Amino acid sequence: MSTELLMPQPWVVQKTERENEDVVTLTLAPESSDHGFSFLPGQFNMLYAFGVGESAISISGDATTNGSMVHTIRDVGAVTHALSAAHVGDVIGIRGPYGSEWPIASHTGRDILVVAGGIGLAPLRPVVYHIIENRHKYKDVAVLYGSREPKDLLFRAELESWKDHNIQVEATVDNATPGWTRHIGVVTTLIRRAKVEPRGAAAFVCGPEIMMRFTASELTGRGMNPDDVFISMERNMKCAVGLCGRCQLGPEFICKDGPVFPWPRMSPVMTIREL
Amino acid sequence: MFSMGRRDKAVTSHKFKDRIPGFVTEEGTKIDTRTFSLRGLDQLIQTLLDHGYQCIGPVVRDGVIAYDKVSSTADLPQGWTDEQSPGHYRLRKREDDACFGFVVGPHSWKRFLYPPERRLWQLQKQGQSFVRVGEPEVAPRYAFLGVKACELAAIGIQDQVLKDGPVPDPDYTQRRDNALIIAVNCTESAETCFCASMKTGPEAAGGFDLVLTEILEPKHAFVAQAGSERGREILDALQTAEASESQIESARAGIASAADGQTRTVDTDGLRELIERASESIHWGEIEERCLSCANCTLSCPTCFCSDVEDSTDLTGEHAERWRRWDSCFNRGFSFVAGGEIRHSTASRYRQWMTHKLSTWHDQFGSSGCVGCGRCITWCPVGIDITEEIQQFRLRDQL
Ligand SMILES: Cc1cc2nc3c(=O)[nH]c(=O)nc-3n(C[C@H](O)[C@H](O)[C@H](O)COP(=O)(O)OP(=O)(O)OC[C@H]3O[C@@H](n4cnc5c(N)ncnc54)[C@H](O)[C@@H]3O)c2cc1C
Ligand code: SF4
Ligand code: SF4
After folding, report:
1. Which atom of ligand 1 is found nearest the CA of A258?
2. Residue A275 located in a structural domain
3. Shortest CA distance to B113 belongs to which of B79, B84, B147?
4. Does a structural domain hold residue B265?
5. Could you give the angle at which helices A263-270 and A209-221 cross, rounded to 10 degrees?
6. What is the mean pLDDT of residues B5-12?
7. Pick from A44, A72, A98: which residue ends a domain?
């Protein structure tokens, strides 16, 4: 790696997939072989659009696939817009991987709940891949996924295929549109439909903060050990290595102490307004 | 209130290892203490320049004592002092010729170790890809003349953040490793100083190459000790004499009077927990009524380290750069995420700043983030006083 601080390395776009109106998934390969790296589910990279800027984006691909990197990006502003517009053959800067991982590998022998809201499914997809590859090591597994409208659902075809691996997949939308025959309501309403008993299970949760709070309190209310609930946090960050100071939340730096935290470390700070 | 699973970092005190307390060692043996006159100070500056250092020291500029290049004692603020109180700073003529007869100005040494803005890198488009261009900047070799005790402590704290963490800032590290530090013990305090409470001063505790104490009695002179091999070599190159008992006594008395003269105090006992408990206090809202969210406190603070980066291209779009600039938790956009700002009220920003300084800094870096230099008190346009606000939180905590 370069000794220059915050220096991105060139990666080439291999594939682009449009997930919905404002989300695309990019598959990238390092331009030069010595830039390859391995990552753990839950970690993120800083993605650089030349001259435009940088954004923290979680890795949404399979951690065991060497040589390529998958990112799912929602177009919300200047940088994510430029990244979303990338074509096959374009070069994007990447530095990373950064941050803490979903501790899925240390929760074998357990029931697992994956609860996602909106773009929050992207950082959780590597968890599902890990489970599929090691399916015999886990007991009952359910993926509960909520989005605003049916057209916003990510990875739609893939969600169906997870069922082939003995994974319960439930999706819900806040606002149904014609043709939607599945659940309506916020994602927490799916918890009681999961064929996973919260007591003794572990949960991996990612979505808007309010959704994570309600999910965690619902799960712990139903008997899940708070230490077995994990959430992934988002804050403004520029460096991703604990130097720019921006991502602080109480005593934590989201970039280096997180983004994945056990619920008990976040619950006290998440209820304080504007912290 | 938040009491999170606290993860105390292996507590490395921000005080430096090579502590030299006073003029005798812990075993009671006398430390080699030299003395030289004003002419000797000129010789010292010249020696630093001869050794290839850029000598940075205090100068009078724009109505304040700032730090800048010095090439002789003529550049120093000889005969000047600073008068400070909440929201107030003024230079005043002294009745003597002291060169270091002031406390601290709006600048701190972080300006040199961690510049307010810096280009991190440049890239050039090459086909679809990009390559790095331009040579990395070579870090300057500074000799800092006149580093006060609180400033030394602040440098120690920034070392923890920028140099001794898991990902060090290479530029800071190099500037820091290059720097020669000549500390000067304070023999007077300003009304805004509270280093004695914060246990960072007024005597430099270590982490310097040389430490001077300026004495006016029995005669204007400097009393000097080496704190490192480099410092020893410099001191040996000067014409010095052994300091007399009366000179050492004069230095000791000056330092003691600086400590005794401090009117502001902070009770640090349980301070970290007090501020942690106060997270939902109504007093933040009371501060908000006065605070302008101007960020002066953070920019003048010698330990604040937050930054922003800006990426840009030239007109052709072929050449890109990344700049880093000091930022502040008081600025708009600092906490921006898609969907809006997290800390939009001034109350929440002030809470972030003060809680970080006095409480969460301990969790993160094993020490307080405040050294008691008083800059945030002086340079706050409305005179908000961190020591007074601490007192307010104490009072409310006892209700
Ligand atoms: C750990 C982590 C993982 C993330 N994973 C994903 C992901 O997998 N997919 C995805 O689509 N998004 C993800 N995000 C959010 C994404 O980083 C922001 O949406 C993005 O930075 C917004 O930048 P912008 O310039 O496009 O948007 P704008 O809203 O235009 O941003 C305006 C300014 O705010 C800054 N800004 C806004 N939000 C952030 C932020 N969170 N961090 C830093 N700067 C910000 C931008 O840099 C820009 O300067 C993640 C964020 C974090 C912290
Ligand atoms: S918080 Fe104020 S008194 Fe403390 S170190 Fe910073 S500027 Fe000095
Ligand atoms: S405390 Fe004073 S200096 Fe700091 S932001 Fe508020 S008004 Fe500005």
Report:
1. 1
2. no
3. B147
4. no
5. 120
6. 37
7. A98
Would you call B4 and A250 a contact, using CB atoms and an 8 Å cutoff? Answer: yes
Q: CA-CA distance, B64 to B80, in Å (whole number)?
A: 10
Amino acid identity of A205? V
Q: Is A8 left (phi over 0), alpha (psi -120 to 50) or beta?
A: beta
Q: Is B199 left (phi over 0), alpha (psi -120 to 50) or beta?
A: left
Do both B302 and B245 map to the same domain?
A: no
Query: Does residue A77 sit in the same domain as residue A209?
Result: no
How close B397 gets to chain A, by Cα (Å)?
A: 18
Mean pLDDT of B107-128: 95
User: CA–CA separation, B284 vs B278, rounded Å?
Assistant: 9
- Whether B253 and B295 map to the same domain: the answer is no
Distance B371 CA to ligand 2 centre (A): 6
The residue with tokens 């206090």 is B281
| In contact, B353 and B329? CB cutoff 8 Å | yes
Segments forming the whole domain that contains residue B368 = 271-397
Residues with CB under 6 A from ligand 3: B 291-297, 330, 380-382, 384
Number of domains in chain A: 2
Q: Which domain holds residue A21?
A: 3-98
Q: B313 to chain A nearest CA, in Å?
A: 5
Assess A91–B contact: CB distance below 8 Å, yes or no: yes
Residue A117 binned pLDDT confidence (cut-offs 50, 70, 90): very high
CATH number at A29 reads 2.40.30.10
Residue B371 Cβ contacting ligand 2 at under 6 Å:
yes
- For residue A275, the distance in angstroms to the closest alpha carbon of chain B comes to 7
| CA-to-CA dists, residue B152 to B119, B179, B201, B202, angstroms | 26, 12, 9, 11
> Is residue A217 within a helix (H) or strand (E), and if so which, with residue range?
helix A209-221
Q: Is B386 in the pocket of ligand 2 (CB under 6 A)?
A: yes
The structure's pTM equals 0.92
Contacts of A90 in chain B (CB under 8 A): 128
What average pLDDT does this structure show over A44-70? Answer: 93
* ipTM score for this prediction: 0.91
